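Friendly challenge for the regulars: who can give me the C-alpha cells for this chain first? No prize, just bragging rights.
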Amino acid sequence: MSDIPSPGPGNDKKKPKNSGGPQFPFGGPKLPDPKKFGGWRFSLVYIIILVIGMSLFNYVFLNKVNPTVDFSEFKSKIVAGEIKRVELTDSYFTGYTTLQRAPPASTTLGRSSRMPSAEPVYRTVPINDPELVKLMDDKGVSYYAVSREGSTILNIIFSWVLPIAFFFFIWRFLMKRLGTMGGNVLSVGNSRAVIVAEGDIATRFPDVAGVDEAKDELVEVVDFLKSPKKYTDIGGKIPKGVLLVGPPGTGKTLLARAVAGEAEVPFFRMSGADFVEMFVGVGAARVRDLFKQAREKAPCIIFIDELDAIGKSRINNIGGGNDEREQTLNQLLVEMDGFDATSGLIILAATNRPDVLDPALLRPGRFDRQVLVDRPDLKGREAIIRIHSKAVKLGDEVDLEAIARVTSGFSGADLANIVNEAALLAVRGGRKVVEQKDFNEAIEKTVAGLQKKTRVLKPAERKLTAYHEAGHALMAAFTPGSDPVQKISIIPRGYALGYTLQMPIEDRYTITQSDLLGRIDVLLGGRVAEDMVSGEFSTGAGNDLTKATDIARKMITDYGMSERFKNVALTSRGMRMPGDAAQEPMFHREYSEATQQYIDEEIANIVEKRYAGVTKILNRNRAVLDTVAGQLLEKETLDEKEFKALVGEVAAANAGAVQPSPVES
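First reply, four minutes later:
Bragging rights claimed.
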C-alpha cells in the first residue's frame, strides 16, 4: 500500500518505476511532401481504377455484342438467302441481312447511327472451308475482308502493355514497403545508419544539464575534431572510442548529439540491434559498410546506441562460434583496430549494461574511455527542470528548487516527463499557466501511479487502508533519520489502495545499518497497524513484507551485517548456460546449505525483532494512530503540514523511544 524504496549500496534515492520515430531524429534531409505536387498523391488504388476503367471501355466499345452461331447454321443462312453480305476477319465471319455497308470505323464510336438498328447479324468462328467461298458466289452473297491493324494495336496495349505496367507498379510498391521494413534482400548488407550532415544538429552542450562531469570528458573529443593539429604536434592521440555508461534516461544519446552538434562534423547514428538480421553474415557486412562510409567522410562521429545488443561477452558462449552476434562483434573489433586515431574518426557508444560487454571491447585502443552518465544531483535536477520548462508558461508561485528537492533519484527523462505532465494537467484543469499543484500531482502520478477515482472501497477495506497508511506515517515520524512524510492518501493509485509519500530532503549515497533497520520499521508499520485494529492480517502488506525481507537479506548477504558472517559477502554470482551468450545469467550461490539455513533464520529473526519494536511504539501512541486514521477516513488525503499538526509534540517526545539496534545472532 505504501511506496517506500528498498535500499542499496550507494543508492539511497527514491526512484519511480517508469524509428517508429522519424528517420532523421537529429535533423538531416527532409522527405518531399507529396501534397506539393499539384495536390496529387500516388496511390495503388488509382492504378486499379485505371485498369478497371480500360477493361470496361474495351468491353463496351471494342467488343462486339452479337452472339456467335454454329458454322453449319451460318452456311444454312447463306443457302436460305437470309445472309446477303459477309464480313471476313481473322477472328470472326459476320453475316448481314442487307447489302448496306457501315460507315468507316474512323468516323464512328461504337455502333454507327447510320446502321439499321433492327438489322439481324450472324457471327461465327472461322473454319478452313474452301466450299464457303464457292457457296457465297453461287448465292450471290457479297463478301469482303477487313484489316484489323488498328485493333491489333489495341490488343497489344490491353493484352501486354497494361498488364506488364500493372505488375511493374505492384512490384515497385512492394519493394518500397519491404525496403522500409528491412526486408529488402538486395540491400541487406548495406549499413542502416542514419547519416546527419554537418551543421544539421541543433543540440549543443548548453542544452544538456545535470551531467557536467561527463560533458567535461567529451570536450576533448570536440576539440580534437575541430583542431586536431595541436594534439598531433605534441604526439598525443585522442581516444578511438568513448563509451557512455549509465542508467536509462540519463541523457547518453543527448550527449552524443551535443558532441556532434558542437564538433559540426557528419554524424552516423545506428542502434546495436540494426546490425543483426535473419541472414548469416549480414551484421558483419553492415559493420564493414558503416566504417567504409565513415572513412570517406572523415572527420566524423559514429554513434552506436545500445551497444550491448552486439557487444555481449563471448566468454560463456561455448560451442557458439558461428553465432551471428559473435561474427558481428568480431568484425567490429577488427574495424576499430583498423583505423588510425589521427584520421578524425571517433566512435561513441552508449549502454546501460556495461557488465555484460566483452572485455575485448573495453581494452585500450578500442573503447579506451568510459564516461559515467549518472542520475543528476540536486543542482543538476534543477538545471534540467529549467531547460525543459523554458517553453512552458509557469505561474509566479512555482518553485523549481522545491520540485528538484522532492525528485531525488529521478533521471533526466523522468524530469522532462514531469514537466510535460504538469503542462497537460494545467490544460485539463482549464488553466493558462502551470501551477505548483500541477507539478505536485505530476510527481505523485509518476511515483504512485494514476489516480483511480472510480474505484469504491468497502467501509471495512477503507478503514483498514487508513490504519495501514497511518502506521507507515507514524513510524516514519518516530524513526530517526527517516525521510519526512510529504503526503498520506487512501485514494487508490495504480495497484495500491493507498500510499504514504516520503521524499528525501537531500541526496544520500551511503546508508548505515541503523538507517536500514529504520526502513524495515517503517515498512512494517502498516502491517502492525492492521493487526492492532482488526486482529488479523490482510494481503495489503504483501509489497511491504517483500521489501523488508529484501533489506534484511542484503544486510546479511551483501553488506556483511551479521554476527556469524560479519564483513563477509555471501552474494550469488551469475553464469550463463553454454551456447547462448544473449540470455540473462542464472544466479547460483557459492556457500553451503547450512549457511543458507542460517541466512533464512537470521532474516526471520531480524523481521520478528523489528516487528515487536514497532508494535510497542504504535501501542504506546494508539491515540495518535486513531486520530491520523480518523482524519484520513474523513479527508482521504493529508499533506505534510496537516500530518505534523496531528502528530504535534508526540513525534518529538518519541523520537528516541526505540533506537534501531545491531543485528544479533
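The first helix runs from residue 44 to 62. The chain has 21 helices and 15 strands. Your move, everyone else.
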